[in-house]
Design brief:
Layout lengths: L1 H20 L16 E7 L2 E7 L5 H13 L5 E6 L3 E4 L11 E3 L11 E6 L5 E10 L12 E7 L1 H6 L5 E8 L1
Antiparallel strand pairs: 1-2, 1-9, 2-8, 3-4, 3-9, 4-7, 5-7, 6-7, 6-8
Function: PPIases accelerate the folding of proteins. It catalyzes the cis-trans isomerization of proline imidic peptide bonds in oligopeptides.
Keywords: Isomerase, Rotamase, Signal
GO molecular function, one term: peptidyl-prolyl cis-trans isomerase activity
Protein backbone atom coordinates (compact mmCIF):
# COMPACT_ATOMS: atom_id res chain seq x y z
CA UNK A 1 0.00 0.00 0.00
CA UNK A 2 2.83 2.36 0.88
CA UNK A 3 4.47 1.58 -2.48
CA UNK A 4 1.23 2.39 -4.33
CA UNK A 5 0.81 5.69 -2.49
CA UNK A 6 4.45 6.62 -3.11
CA UNK A 7 4.12 5.68 -6.81
CA UNK A 8 0.93 7.75 -7.16
CA UNK A 9 2.63 10.70 -5.41
CA UNK A 10 5.67 10.42 -7.73
CA UNK A 11 3.46 10.36 -10.85
CA UNK A 12 1.51 13.42 -9.67
CA UNK A 13 4.72 15.27 -8.82
CA UNK A 14 6.25 14.51 -12.23
CA UNK A 15 3.06 15.58 -14.01
CA UNK A 16 2.98 18.86 -12.09
CA UNK A 17 6.64 19.55 -12.79
CA UNK A 18 6.35 18.76 -16.50
CA UNK A 19 3.20 20.82 -16.97
CA UNK A 20 4.99 23.77 -15.39
CA UNK A 21 7.67 23.51 -18.05
CA UNK A 22 5.30 24.15 -20.94
CA UNK A 23 4.81 27.69 -22.20
CA UNK A 24 1.10 28.31 -22.42
CA UNK A 25 1.58 31.78 -23.92
CA UNK A 26 2.94 30.26 -27.16
CA UNK A 27 5.04 33.32 -27.99
CA UNK A 28 5.68 33.31 -31.71
CA UNK A 29 8.94 34.57 -33.06
CA UNK A 30 8.66 35.51 -36.71
CA UNK A 31 11.83 35.38 -38.71
CA UNK A 32 12.02 38.19 -41.28
CA UNK A 33 12.57 35.58 -44.00
CA UNK A 34 9.04 34.31 -43.22
CA UNK A 35 7.77 37.62 -44.66
CA UNK A 36 9.35 37.12 -48.09
CA UNK A 37 6.75 36.57 -50.80
CA UNK A 38 8.58 37.66 -53.96
CA UNK A 39 12.24 37.70 -54.93
CA UNK A 40 14.21 40.08 -57.10
CA UNK A 41 17.74 40.37 -58.44
CA UNK A 42 19.30 43.82 -58.57
CA UNK A 43 21.90 43.50 -61.32
CA UNK A 44 24.72 46.00 -60.91
CA UNK A 45 28.00 46.59 -62.71
CA UNK A 46 29.67 45.10 -59.59
CA UNK A 47 27.53 41.93 -59.47
CA UNK A 48 24.10 40.65 -58.50
CA UNK A 49 22.22 41.40 -55.29
CA UNK A 50 19.38 39.00 -54.50
CA UNK A 51 16.55 40.42 -52.40
CA UNK A 52 13.36 39.10 -50.87
CA UNK A 53 10.36 41.43 -50.90
CA UNK A 54 7.87 41.75 -48.02
CA UNK A 55 4.62 41.79 -49.98
CA UNK A 56 2.46 41.36 -46.86
CA UNK A 57 4.27 44.09 -44.90
CA UNK A 58 4.35 46.73 -47.65
CA UNK A 59 2.04 45.62 -50.49
CA UNK A 60 1.75 48.98 -52.28
CA UNK A 61 5.50 49.54 -52.14
CA UNK A 62 6.31 46.04 -53.40
CA UNK A 63 3.78 46.42 -56.22
CA UNK A 64 5.25 49.81 -57.17
CA UNK A 65 8.85 48.50 -57.04
CA UNK A 66 8.07 45.37 -59.06
CA UNK A 67 6.07 47.33 -61.63
CA UNK A 68 8.91 49.82 -62.15
CA UNK A 69 11.46 47.00 -62.32
CA UNK A 70 9.45 45.07 -64.92
CA UNK A 71 9.08 48.20 -67.06
CA UNK A 72 12.85 48.74 -67.12
CA UNK A 73 12.61 51.96 -65.10
CA UNK A 74 15.74 51.25 -63.05
CA UNK A 75 17.91 50.29 -66.03
CA UNK A 76 21.17 52.28 -65.98
CA UNK A 77 20.22 54.43 -62.98
CA UNK A 78 23.04 54.93 -60.49
CA UNK A 79 23.65 54.54 -56.80
CA UNK A 80 23.87 58.23 -55.90
CA UNK A 81 24.42 57.91 -52.14
CA UNK A 82 26.93 55.67 -50.37
CA UNK A 83 27.60 56.24 -46.68
CA UNK A 84 28.98 54.03 -43.93
CA UNK A 85 25.45 52.82 -43.04
CA UNK A 86 23.51 52.95 -46.32
CA UNK A 87 23.62 52.62 -50.11
CA UNK A 88 20.88 54.41 -52.07
CA UNK A 89 19.80 54.37 -55.70
CA UNK A 90 16.81 54.53 -58.02
CA UNK A 91 16.71 58.29 -58.55
CA UNK A 92 16.03 59.15 -62.23
CA UNK A 93 17.95 62.43 -61.77
CA UNK A 94 20.89 60.73 -60.05
CA UNK A 95 21.17 63.28 -57.25
CA UNK A 96 18.60 62.29 -54.62
CA UNK A 97 15.89 64.75 -55.69
CA UNK A 98 14.07 62.83 -58.43
CA UNK A 99 11.10 60.50 -58.48
CA UNK A 100 7.44 60.73 -57.58
CA UNK A 101 5.54 60.00 -54.39
CA UNK A 102 3.89 57.01 -52.77
CA UNK A 103 2.19 56.49 -49.41
CA UNK A 104 4.59 55.39 -46.66
CA UNK A 105 3.82 51.92 -45.25
CA UNK A 106 5.18 51.86 -41.71
CA UNK A 107 5.67 48.61 -39.80
CA UNK A 108 7.56 47.25 -36.83
CA UNK A 109 9.75 45.19 -39.17
CA UNK A 110 13.22 46.14 -37.93
CA UNK A 111 15.78 47.76 -40.17
CA UNK A 112 18.96 45.68 -39.92
CA UNK A 113 21.96 44.90 -42.10
CA UNK A 114 20.57 44.15 -45.56
CA UNK A 115 17.15 45.75 -45.06
CA UNK A 116 15.57 47.33 -48.13
CA UNK A 117 13.83 50.65 -47.49
CA UNK A 118 12.20 53.51 -49.36
CA UNK A 119 13.69 57.01 -49.27
CA UNK A 120 11.49 59.90 -48.21
CA UNK A 121 11.62 63.59 -47.46
CA UNK A 122 10.42 65.37 -44.33
CA UNK A 123 6.79 64.16 -44.41
CA UNK A 124 6.64 60.72 -42.77
CA UNK A 125 3.37 59.95 -44.63
CA UNK A 126 4.92 60.32 -48.10
CA UNK A 127 7.81 58.31 -49.55
CA UNK A 128 9.66 58.50 -52.84
CA UNK A 129 8.23 56.14 -55.43
CA UNK A 130 11.53 55.07 -57.00
CA UNK A 131 14.46 55.64 -54.62
CA UNK A 132 15.37 52.71 -52.40
CA UNK A 133 18.16 52.08 -49.96
CA UNK A 134 19.97 49.09 -48.49
CA UNK A 135 21.25 49.23 -44.91
CA UNK A 136 24.89 48.23 -44.51
CA UNK A 137 24.67 48.45 -40.71
CA UNK A 138 21.96 47.96 -38.11
CA UNK A 139 19.53 50.83 -38.71
CA UNK A 140 16.93 50.13 -36.03
CA UNK A 141 16.29 53.88 -35.61
CA UNK A 142 14.57 53.80 -39.03
CA UNK A 143 11.96 51.25 -37.87
CA UNK A 144 8.44 52.77 -37.97
CA UNK A 145 9.95 55.85 -39.66
CA UNK A 146 10.48 54.48 -43.19
CA UNK A 147 8.93 51.74 -45.32
CA UNK A 148 10.83 48.46 -44.92
CA UNK A 149 9.92 46.33 -47.93
CA UNK A 150 12.55 43.62 -48.13
CA UNK A 151 16.00 42.30 -47.36
CA UNK A 152 19.15 41.18 -49.12
CA UNK A 153 19.25 37.38 -49.20
CA UNK A 154 22.51 37.10 -51.12
CA UNK A 155 25.12 39.62 -52.22
CA UNK A 156 25.88 41.84 -49.23
CA UNK A 157 29.50 41.67 -50.35
CA UNK A 158 28.39 43.40 -53.57
CA UNK A 159 26.39 46.01 -51.60
CA UNK A 160 29.40 46.74 -49.39
CA UNK A 161 31.58 47.36 -52.48
CA UNK A 162 29.20 49.77 -54.24
CA UNK A 163 30.41 53.31 -54.86
CA UNK A 164 28.67 56.50 -55.93
CA UNK A 165 28.06 56.27 -59.67
CA UNK A 166 27.86 52.46 -59.87
CA UNK A 167 24.99 51.42 -62.13
CA UNK A 168 21.85 49.40 -61.71
CA UNK A 169 21.87 47.43 -64.96
CA UNK A 170 18.41 45.96 -64.39
CA UNK A 171 16.13 44.59 -61.69
CA UNK A 172 14.57 41.20 -62.39
CA UNK A 173 11.48 40.06 -60.48
CA UNK A 174 11.02 36.36 -59.73
CA UNK A 175 7.48 35.59 -58.61
Amino acid sequence: MKKSAFFLFAVCLCTALLSGCSDSSQTQTTNSSDKIMKNAVIKTDKGDIKVGLYEQVAPKTVENFTSKAKSGYYQNLIFHRVEDWVVQGGDPLGNGTGGGQIETELSDTPFKIGSLGVARGGDIKVSNDSQFFICTQDCSWLTNQYTNFGEVTEGMDIVNNLEIGDKILAIEINE
